[in-house]
Amino acid sequence: MSRKKAFFFRANRILALFFAIFFAPLLFSVPQETTFPDQPRIIAQSWEKVKDRIFASGNVEIHYRNIKLFADRIELNTETKDVYAEGHVVLQSPEEVVTVEKIFFNLENLSGRLEKAFGMVQPSIFYEAESIERKGENLYSFEKARLTSCTQPVPRWRFSCSRANFKKDDYLEMWNSVFSIKKIPIFYFPYLRYPLDKERATGFLMPQLGYSGPKGFFYSQSFYWIIKRNIDSTFNLDYYTARGIGGGMELRYLFGGGTGGQLNAYYFIFKKDPEREAPSNAYLFRFNHNQPLPFGFALVAGIDYQSSYDFLREFDNNFQRAVVSNRRSQVYLSKAWSYFNFNMRASRFETYFAQIKNSFIINYLPQISLNSFKIKLFSPLYFSFSSSFNRWQSGWETAYKAGRETHSQSLSFNPVLSLPFTKIPWLTVNSSLATNLNYYFQTYDPKFPGRRIIVNEPLFSRNYSLSIELIGPVSYRIYYGKEGIAKLKHIIEPSASYIYQSPVASATRIITPYGFFRFHQIIYGLTNHFLIKKDEMPREIFTLGLSQAFYLSPEDSPLSIFRVDGKIPEFSDISSYLRFYPVAKYSLDFSAGFNPYHKAFSSLRLGAKLGSPTDSAFLHISWFKSMNPWYKEPIFDRHQISFFTGAKIPKLQIETLAELDFNIVERKMLYSAFSFVYHYQCLDFGADLRIFYFREKPETQFRISIGLGNIGKTTDFLGGMQF
Question: Taking the model in full, what pTM does it have?
Answer without folding.
Answer: 0.77
